[in-house]
Amino acid sequence: MRTILEPLIGLLVLIGIVWGLTLYLQEPEIQYIQGEVDATQVNLAVKIAGRVSDVFVKEGEYVQKGTSLLRLDSPEITARLTQASSARKAASAQKDKADAGARSQEVDAAMNLWIQAREAAELAEKTYRRINRLYADGIVPGQRQDEAEARWKAAEAAAAAARSQYDMALEGTRKEDRQAASAMVDQARGAVTEVETYLDETRLKTPLSGEVIHLLADPGEVVNAGYPVVTILDLDDIWITFNIREDHLAGMEMGRVFPVFVPALGDKTFEVKISYIAPLGDYATWRATSASGGFDLKTFELRARPLDLIIGLRPGMSVLVSRKDLPDARK
């Protein structure tokens, strides 16, 4: 009897091992495809370095577009603004001076100099004519005549120069000088605008409405330019991401609408629409383990967006879709 049972037991054990290996090696049919909720996250960074003086929001708070999140204290920017403002005032004063031209006192002084030079020239001319008559009568030598003529011509040149100075005072500043002064004002105004722009950057504002999920700076901390300090979650731009092996992509094409359910929301069912399909990198490729009869299978990222607003849906939640709710394209 014992001789008969031992082979029978061994056969049963062998059958059990073979059956177990068959179940282990056989790939079960996938009944559900799992995805994860994701949403747009914007990391906000400061454009200038400074010390955080005030933080106006808290993590978890919902903020509207344009809301001030925090403020930096930057004495360097304030000093540069003072310098730029002073340079603008100086340039404006130079432009006003150029536009106004010479002062009335300067014009009067130039006129008096011209009158004095003109009268001196007239006197030199009269003296020359008298000396010339005396020279003609042989009373004075020729040297006196030459000296009188030289003084007359010099007086006329001085009068002409004085008249030119008077005309310049009447005309005012040259056109080129006025243009240069105006350009200096524009340059100084641009410098002030630039510094004021940097000063505005000391107050970080959100470019979109959303929820503050990360706040990485506290009052008193020094942050560098480009350092992300606040992360905003845009719950109005939400989608579901699925990573699906290509042999399970049947029936999932762009624009396909299918139902999903969210365990975290009490297994409520919602409709979503496929908006994005793209292969993942080689790291996500399923390699064939057999040299014959097998092939590499790539993994695709699929994104689907809810057709309607889903109250309570948040990034990180699991989403399930049943294979029976997806039409099989291979049929």
TrEMBL record:
TM stretches of this protein: 7-25
Residues annotated as domain YbhG-like alpha-helical hairpin: 73-201
Keyword Membrane listed: yes
Claim: Membrane is one of the keywords in the record: yes
Alphabetically ordered keywords of this record: Membrane, Transmembrane, Transmembrane helix
Cross-referenced PANTHER family: 36 KDA ANTIGEN, 36 KDA ANTIGEN-RELATED
Protein name: Secretion protein, HlyD family
Species of the source: Desulfotignum phosphitoxidans DSM 13687
